[in-house]
Design goal:
Quinone Oxidoreductase, Chain A, domain 1, Rossmann fold, 2 domains, 7-stranded mixed sheet, binds NADP nicotinamide-adenine-dinucleotide phosphate
Length: about 350
């Protein structure tokens, strides 16, 4: 007889249109048998250890079809789904065995039955903290790698601007650009984060966008000759100001637009003619479509971590019950570094 355990879950309440709030997620406790059901072939039952709070999750709170089609919506009354690190408790899939560690899509709950295992990665390197597989060694790390090396076509000596620079993606892109010998400036929303960008992550400079009444003037101050590469994490006003400050043949990599995710009506950009006049290349990307690069990315990233050539800051909230506040916090910049939730100790 399989043991039956209590399973605390974070349930998605219902679709929303404006700002996400903690009350959109409800704590519930049910029970679960620690065995993959007989009728589930190719499934794994996991104990969740770490959960990742990612900005795209806000888009999954919209009803299907609401400018939302790169991700599916959450299902009301079901657990929130997100990326996590977990340990296999039982498996009917020959690729995953009991006690192995994985990262990938799981539920916001203590134990999850994962029926779709295609996007699960086995964790083979455990000399680094397991939480890293939600960030620097997981989806945001790969997004930083793809956004910089694959999309931005960077060259030594170029000028690089990064918004939301102290977040999971931004802190890494800035360091990749420094490793290549670029001049790098980041924007962030507090003095503490601006100091971290300069002192810990080695950016050449940084500024607090909330202190600037004119973003165009701020960018002109930091890039008097213009920007070669802009890695956009925020969209909105900052994107508009960056477009005005790009150099001829500049590249804008559209990674994300966190300033717009809680808006019912998203802002437009007004300075698009500059894209024509300066022959700028703007390209968006969705990291899930680059998962085939993950092994190459690991070969690149693991040595940098082991040799201490890259800094990484994460913000770990303790306990599943802290997950709703942690997720909501990233939309007001409460997190310093990658926001993770520790569900259980390893
Ligand atoms: P993160 O670590 O969760 O950090 C998000 C940060 O964004 C916050 O800490 C906050 O910092 C800033 N922010 C929040 N609301 C803002 C607003 N209204 N205006 C300006 N800044 C705001 O984020 P991340 O994981 O690095 O993700 C960064 C971006 O990349 C997001 O847009 C995300 O959707 C995108 N992304 C895209 C892909 C892809 O496949 N294309 C993959 C991963 C992530 P401040 O204190 O600086 O305001």
């Amino acid at each position: 007889m399989a043991a039956e355990v209590s399973n605390t879950q974070i349930i998605f309440n219902n679709y929303i249109r404006k700002y996400a709030k903690e009350a959109d997620m409800i704590l519930k406790t049910s029970t679960m048998k620690l065995k993959v059901p007989e009728d589930c072939s190719d499934a794994v039952l996991v104990k969740n250890l770490y959960l990742s709070c990612d900005p795209y999750m806000r888009n999954r709170m919209n009803k299907i079809g609401a400018a939302n089609d790169y991700v599916t919506s959450f299902t009301p009354a079901e657990p929130i789904i997100g990326i996590g690190v977990a340990k296999v408790v039982d498996s009917s899939n020959h690729n995953f065995k009991k006690d192995e560690l994985i990262w990938g899509m799981t539920g916001w709950e203590e134990y999850s039955l994962i029926k779709s295992t295609q996007s699960l990665f086995k964790i083979e390197h455990t000399d680094v903290p397991l939480s890293y597989y939600t960030g620097i060694l997981g989806m945001p790390g790969l997004a930083a790698y793809v956004g910089f090396y694959e999309i931005s076509c960077p060259r030594k000596g170029e000028t690089v601007f990064i918004s939301a620079a102290c977040g999971a993606v931004g802190q890494l892109v800035g360091q990749f650009a420094k490793l290549l010998g670029c001049y790098v400036v980041g924007s962030a929303g507090t003095k503490y984060k601006v100091d971290l960008l300069r002192s810990k992550f080695g950016f050449d400079d940084a500024f607090n966008y909330k202190d600037e009444s004119n973003l165009n003037a701020a960018l002109k101050r930091y890039f008097p000759e213009g920007i070669d590469i802009y890695l956009d994490n925020v969209g909105g006003e900052m994107l508009d100001a960056a477009i005005l400050n790009m150099k001829l043949n500049g590249r804008i990599s559209l990674c994300g637009m966190i300033s717009q995710y809680n808006q019912q009506h998203r802002e437009g950009v007004r300075n698009m003619f500059n894209v024509v006049a300066k022959q700028i290349r703007m390209q968006g990307f969705v990291v899930f479509l680059y998962y085939s690069l993950y092994p190459k990315f690991l070969d690149f990233m693991l040595p940098l971590i082991r040799q201490g050539k890259i800094e990484y800051v994460e913000d770990i909230a303790d306990g599943l019950e802290s997950a709703p506040a942690a997720l909501i916090g990233i939309f007001s910049g409460r997190n310093v570094g990658k926001q993770v939730v520790r569900v259980a100790h390893e």
